[in-house]
Structure formats: C-alpha cells, structure tokens
C-alpha cells in the first residue's frame, strides 16, 4: 500500500483546490491537493508536493 500526503492551504479564509487533469483518475474534478510519499518521510513528501504543485513554500504547517 502506498502512502499519500494531503494538504490544505488556507489564506484569508480561502482554501486552495486543484482541478485534476482529464487524463488522471477522477479527471476534471476539483480536489484537495495530494501526492505520494516516495523514499522520504511524510514531512519531506508534504513540502515537496506543495512546492511541485503550487510553487509555494509554506512558512508554517500543522500535521494532523
């Protein structure tokens, strides 16, 4: 079983969603951004996925 990380980016009461590509599973739907944990710990995977998918580097985060 593969592990994934999900992240919710909040700013000014708004939540960032992503629209899934048409050629992906559930294509065309809006989703909470996520990604697979590769050969790394979950925090590293989280930070990598945020950077890859949004270009952002979070100043702070809370793990749930």
Q: Could you walk me through the main structural features you see in this protein, from its secondary elements to its overall organization?
A:
There is one protein chain. By secondary structure, this protein is an alpha+beta fold. It contains one helix and six strands. It has one helix spanning 42-54; strands spanning 4-6, 10-11, 14-15, 18-19, 30-31, 34-36. Strands 1-6 form a two-stranded antiparallel ribbon. It has a two-stranded antiparallel ribbon with strand order 2-3. A two-stranded antiparallel sheet has the order 4-5. It is globular.
- Indicate the radius of gyration in whole angstroms: 12 Å
How would the global form be characterised? Answer: globular
Number of continuous helical runs: 1
**Average predicted local confidence, pLDDT:** 89
Proportion in β-strands: 15-25%
Distance between the termini: 20 Å
State the major sheet. 2 strands, antiparallel
Class by helix and strand content?
A: alpha+beta
Percent helix: 10-25%
- Please list the strands of the largest sheet in the order they lie side by side: 1-6
Give the total of beta strands: 6
Succession of helices and strands: EEEEEEH
Low-pLDDT segments? none
Question: What keywords describe this structure?
Answer:
single chain, 64 residues, alpha+beta, two-stranded antiparallel sheet, 1 helix, 22% strand
């Amino acid at each position: 079983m593969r592990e994934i990380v999900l992240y919710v980016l909040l700013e000014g009461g708004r939540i960032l969603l992503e629209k899934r590509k048409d050629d992906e599973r559930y294509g065309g739907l809006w989703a909470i951004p996520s990604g697979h944990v590769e050969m790394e710990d979950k925090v590293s995977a989280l930070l990598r996925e945020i950077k890859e998918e949004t270009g952002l580097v979070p100043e702070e985060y809370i793990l749930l």
